[in-house]
Design a protein that fits this description.
Layout: H1 23-34, E1 39-43, E2 52-58, E3 67-76, E4 82-88, E5 98-101, E6 103-104, E7 116-122, E8 134-138, E9 143-154, E10 159-166, E11 174-182
Antiparallel strand pairs: 1-6, 1-11, 2-7, 2-10, 3-9, 3-11, 4-8, 4-10, 5-7
Length: about 180
């Protein structure tokens, strides 16, 4: 037992924190930590046709709230690496594109999100006038989950967009998902 003789030293052993597992205390803790945020999530279906595929989280111009991005997930279903290009507030007109509203994490409130996820798959490079803010490469059959913790803020009329391409300009197969809250 000489290997464990130092474990009783007060500098090594920390007193365990006692947590009350009472439901009321948990609810109090959760509401204090999360400020009763209603988290929304939405994503694209599996995108697999066209050289240029993207998903954007857009806060419409007539929205009365600001969007705070919690996380972004990109799934590469391809057998080749994909290039992720992130654009903050790209110059693009979202009129006429397919879109989905966010789904709430609440079972209590049936609330619609203000933000919408817009997606595109095709051969037209609609972002040729824009410069990406971030470039990443995802390996084949890989899921990239990037936590943002509300550090990306999208006011009304603005967006964040993730463009997916391959190095050889073949058709990638991917899905893009956003998680956010609104204030």
């Amino acid at each position: 037992m000489k290997y464990y003789s130092n474990l009783h030293n007060h500098k090594i052993i920390k007193q365990p924190k006692i947590v009350d597992l009472n439901i009321d205390e948990n609810e109090k803790y959760n509401s204090e930590k999360c400020n009763n945020k209603l988290i929304f999530s939405s994503g694209t279906p599996q995108l697999s046709s066209g050289k240029h595929q993207w998903g954007a989280l857009y806060n419409p111009k007539n929205s009365k709230s600001t969007i705070y991005v919690e996380s972004i997930s990109i799934v590469n279903f391809s057998s080749i690496p994909i290039i992720q290009s992130q654009y903050l507030n790209p110059k693009i007109n979202y009129e006429g594109f397919k879109y989905m509203y966010g789904n709430s994490n609440s079972l209590e409130y049936n609330t619609n999100s203000n933000g919408v996820v817009i997606f595109y798959q095709g051969n037209d490079n609609l972002l040729f006038l824009n410069e990406p803010n971030l470039l990443k490469i995802s390996q084949p059959f890989y899921t990239d989950n990037s936590q943002k913790y509300g550090n990306i803020i999208i006011p009304p009329g603005k967006s964040i967009l993730i463009l997916i391409n391959t190095m050889d300009l073949s058709n990638p197969s991917c899905a893009i998902s956003y998680t956010w809250w609104e204030e």
